Amino acid sequence: MTHRIGFTSAVVLWGAVLFAGACGPPVPGPAGPSTATAASAGELERLRAEVADLQRKLDAADARLAAFDGINEATAVVHNAQNIPRKLQLAAKLPEGLRSQVGVDLGRLLMVRPDRAGEVLIALRDEKDAGALRVLADVIRNGALASVPAASKVDAIDALRSGEPLERRLAAAWALQPGLDPTPPDAIAAAVERLRSETDAELLGVLAELVGARPTGEALDALEWAARKMPPGADRRRVLVPVARASVVRDRGESVVARAIDATTPDLRDDLAAAIAGAANSMSAPLQRSEPDAQRIERMKVARDRFIALYRAVTQVEIRRDLVRAASGGLAVLPPVGPGAPERVEFYRAVAEVESDPAQKAALERAAHGFEDGSLTPTSPALDAILRGR
User: Per the count of CB atoms within 10 A, which of 45, 92, 175, 265 is most buried?
Assistant: First the structure.
């Protein structure tokens, strides 16, 4: 960085010069140099050292300020650049947090500029810099291609199949997410192929969302394959959500809940339980036509016992909280609406008995009490707030 002296430092140095002139070596008297001469020289050296130290501190502060100004200037330059590739290249030079925010902002701006979608697709095909492609993934994820028909995304399918580097495949996976029309079959096929060969956890999670809306048997097999090679955590849960959703549709989650209960590790059990909750909370309970009361009561009792067995084995309270909400969703452990207050009181109290977290236990007791005294109904906003721990 070019050395510069700020206004404050200049004032300090000028003061030091004046002081040095005033305290310069005194004229010797008739008897020769006095003892004050040596003292004044020592004081001057001390002051010069203090001024030099202060200048170093001011230079460091100026450097930090210049860096901050540079970031702001670079952000403005990104937004003022005329074409998309140049915006991406400039944004790639920013620190990670700011780079991601610029990607979000650009995506939202381009969402209302469909006339510039062609530039985004060209960048997806031609850009070579990994940092710029990472920004491009954020831009696309935030809506830059939301109005582009699937037929215009052929290059994205090719990029997903064989694109390098990884960031190009990630941007392509976001580009192929459903928009104006459903994702075409050849894009789904490319995603299934990539699920079997990809190793990056983030990209596998995005691919799971791509194929997960209506997964075929082949897609479910690929998701299972991907999940087995992934580490525990949020990305593996995203991959398992379509697997859980398929079970909820097929058998009210019975098979995937049993699988979670029998999981060989706590991490896998937690990830499966989180996926079950995510799937079931996004679905309504299936309607049962002409189901006799006795049959319904027996079915719900079995489902409740199975639910509590899973609930008590999950280690993370946040997942247990989501599971309780899922009980009246796709899992159909509770009736979604209508009568059933006694069943709900019994259910919430049974779950509270196995809960170890004091706050979650208190929330379950509040829910049971609310149905007991009639202050809560299945559709009460207050119930949802209670079950979310608010």
Answer: 175
Which neighbouring-strand residues pair with 29? Answer: 32
Contact 387, 325 (CB under 8 A): yes
| Backbone phi and psi for residue 340, each to the nearest 5 degrees, phi listed first | 135, 15
If we measure between CA atoms, which residue out of 120, 131, 198, 129 comes closest to residue 161?
A: 198
pLDDT per position as a tens digit, 49-105: 888 887 787 666 555 544 545 556 666 767 777 788 888 988 888 887 778 888 888
What separation in angstroms does the CA of 294 have from each of 297, 299, 308, 337, 341?
5, 9, 21, 18, 17
User: What's CA 263's distance to the chain center, in Å?
Assistant: 26
Q: Are 111 and 75 contacting, i.e. CB atoms less than 8 angstroms apart?
A: no
The answer to whether the beta carbons of residues 171 and 128 sit under 8 Å apart is: no
Please, are residues 347 and 354 in contact by the beta-carbon 8 Å criterion?
no
Read off the pLDDT of residues 4-47 as tens digits, 9 standing for 90 and up: 344 344 433 434 443 344 444 444 444 454 555 666 777 788 88
pLDDT digits (tens, 9 = 90+) for 179-190: 777 888 999 999
d(CA 236, CA 286): 27
Under DSSP, the state recorded for 28 is P
What span, in angstroms and rounded, lies between the C-alpha atoms of 372 and 345? 6
**Are 137 and 171 spatial neighbours (Cβ–Cβ below 8 Å)?**
yes
181-187 long-range contacts, Cβ below 8 Å, gap at least 24?
Answer: 181/149, 181/150, 182/150, 183/150, 183/210, 183/213, 184/150, 184/151, 186/157, 187/150, 187/153, 187/156, 187/157, 187/160
pTM, to two decimals:
0.72
